[in-house]
């Protein structure tokens, strides 16, 4: 609906500019930086309107590309944060059930050199910190 209103206003503005240009057909001097020319006022008005539309359209297209790039970056960040939240929720539910924590990220698990078992470094819970004065001990039980 917003696009339809914008299109309607653009058409009304174009008609007003066209009527204004047709009424003003006299020759006028146009001073450029490098010279002077005599042109019909209708060409000056229409040329100015077209140049303004071209500049504003270019700015709008550039802004659209910048916003699309930002949206893609935010979607990637959102996906990464959602997977982090899911992993943390799995960790919380495992801690609540006193089960070993299974991480989806392989870099969080380390291989135990003696037994060949995979050991997961889990963060300390408030319960572990209150019950144990040694904060180095990390367990899920």
Which ranges are low-confidence, i.e. pLDDT below 50, for 5 or more consecutive residues?
132-139
Q: Helix fraction? A: 55-70%
Largest sheet: 2 strands, antiparallel
Query: Could you give the order of the helices and strands?
Result: HEEHEEH
Spatial shape: rod-shaped
Notes on the protein architecture:
- Residues 132-139 have low confidence and may be disordered.
- Helix 1 packs antiparallel against helix 2 (41-97).
- With 141 residues, the chain is mainly alpha-helical.
- The radius of gyration is 34 Å and the shape is rod-shaped.
- It has helices at 2-23, 41-97, 126-131, and strands spanning 27-31, 36-40, 109-111, 118-120.
In short:
This protein has 141 residues and is mainly α. It has helices spanning 2-23, 41-97, 126-131, and strands at 27-31, 36-40, 109-111, 118-120.
Characteristic terms for this protein:
141 residues, mainly alpha, two-stranded antiparallel sheet, two-stranded antiparallel ribbon, 3 helices, 4 strands
Question: Helices, strands, pairings?
Answer:
Layout: H1 2-23, E1 27-31, E2 36-40, H2 41-97, E3 109-111, E4 118-120, H3 126-131
Antiparallel strand pairs: 1-2, 3-4
């Amino acid at each position: 609906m917003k696009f339809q209103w914008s299109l309607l206003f653009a058409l009304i503005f174009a008609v007003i500019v066209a009527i204004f240009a047709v009424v003003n057909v006299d020759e006028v001097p146009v001073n450029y930086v490098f010279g002077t020319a005599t042109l019909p006022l209708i060409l000056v008005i229409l040329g100015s309107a077209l140049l303004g539309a071209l500049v504003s359209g270019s700015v709008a297209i550039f802004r659209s590309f910048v916003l699309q790039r930002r949206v893609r970056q935010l979607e990637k960040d959102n996906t990464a944060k959602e997977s982090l939240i899911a992993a943390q929720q799995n960790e919380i539910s495992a801690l609540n059930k006193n089960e070993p924590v299974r991480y989806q990220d392989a870099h969080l698990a380390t291989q135990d050199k003696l037994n060949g078992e995979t050991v997961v470094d889990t963060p300390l819970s408030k319960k572990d910190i209150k019950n144990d004065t040694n904060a180095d001990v990390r367990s899920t039980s």
